[in-house]
Amino acid sequence: MFKTVAYADIFDYPLTASEIIRWQIAGDLKVRPIKESAAGAIYPQGGSDLIVKTSRYFHLKGRSHLVALRRRRAQISAAKLRLARRVAGWLKLIPTVRLVAVTGALAMKNADKNDDIDLMVVTSKNRLWLTRLLATILLFPHLRGGRMDSSEVADKLCLNLWLDESALAVPASRRNLYTAHEVAQVKPLINKDGTYQKFIASNSWVTRFLPNSFRLQRSDLNRNSRLQAEKVPPKSHRGRSDLIDWLESFAFRLQLWYMKPKITRERVGPHQAFFHPRPTGQIVMKKYRQRLSRLSRSDLNRNSRLPAEKGSPAGERSDLIGKERGKVLATGVFDILHPEHVKFLKAAKKQGDILLVGVESDTRVSLLKGPGRPINPISRRLINLRRLKIADQVFALPEKFFSPAAHEALIKKIRPDILAVSASTPNQKEKRRIMEKLGGRLKVVLPHNPRVSTSKMLQSIK
């Protein structure tokens, strides 16, 4: 729940309980174990009071003013949506238009007074640029900047995303939490030949980030008869296709020539065009990581209120509620700390915002390293690591941590973005497979130094 509410907070958007379920971010705490206190604060069972309920909306503590803001923006959005539907009706007149949909803040009914009306248009295969040219002529007085107008005027149209039927999937390089949200919250206004359903099917990757979003969106679509797919009459005049193909190619070259001097971050091609001059996704994800980092630190300060794992020292936990994005996991024995340990931890820390370090249990160390190990019991090894002040949290790994299934269970619970290892870490192939399966990656952050290890130090003492 922390992730989900924290992400919505970037947009000043408190969530209802049903919206928390719909927009739940993968790996976030479930809604079911949420309790509500008399003061209106909610928290996971045994957790901290970082999220507050005002009326029917949940938000971060100290952000109750967002409830009134959301209601005001909903009223503003209603007027903008009426205009958007009117525009969609005009675009419907163009035979090659297959889908017109609202995107961005307006799709969430969270638009402010001076916000543009952002639209996505999907066209017939190989007809994107001819369709865009016709749409530009049709809507020119209402368009912002082609982005054709730089004035600060409310309710300007911004047709900032164009796809044709052959390229409905968002490119792999653009796939992240921000883009998943943008795709999942698209609000269709015109939907011909089931193009919206094809768009969803082509972007099933979204469920890796937002597992519930499409399932609930399909339910909305089934209940709303206005959004059911319209049938398009069979194509005729096939003999003209060569001429139309030439016109499409000409329209592409013409518009590309016009735009080229003005292009900054926009990405255009024959089948897709993304007119987003600002790196909004990067900005949003940076703010998201910052919020999660603050939440995590607040949560870590309350560790004394959290239950200890059975078999671990009091106050230690392996269920790690601070599930941030930009999170790095490192594991090891860390029996007698030496410079290579410090180098490894510092290198791991540089890979993300939060470093979590899992320490092998005494039972496991004895099996891995042999009789007489560990030299230091788990309680002492945890204290030593904390004193380095490199890791954001140190915790004891489960005693039964032998199989790939046990490793996968831990990764599923923590959901790190990166598993940091050294070049000498065993079973890297299996660990990489698990990380990639769960949407993360394994990264070697330190080369092997054969001259330094705890075992060699002990041998030299003998």
From TrEMBL:
<keyword id="KW-0808">Transferase</keyword>
<dbReference type="InterPro" id="IPR004821">
    <property type="entry name" value="Cyt_trans-like"/>
</dbReference>
<dbReference type="InterPro" id="IPR014729">
    <property type="entry name" value="Rossmann-like_a/b/a_fold"/>
</dbReference>
<feature type="domain" description="Cytidyltransferase-like">
    <location>
        <begin position="329"/>
        <end position="435"/>
    </location>
</feature>
<feature type="region of interest" description="Disordered">
    <location>
        <begin position="299"/>
        <end position="319"/>
    </location>
</feature>
<keyword id="KW-0548">Nucleotidyltransferase</keyword>
<protein>
    <recommendedName>
        <fullName>Cytidyltransferase-like domain-containing protein</fullName>
    </recommendedName>
</protein>
<dbReference type="InterPro" id="IPR050385">
    <property type="entry name" value="Archaeal_FAD_synthase"/>
</dbReference>
<dbReference type="Pfam" id="PF01467">
    <property type="entry name" value="CTP_transf_like"/>
</dbReference>
<dbReference type="GO" id="GO:0016779">
    <property type="term" value="F:nucleotidyltransferase activity"/>
</dbReference>
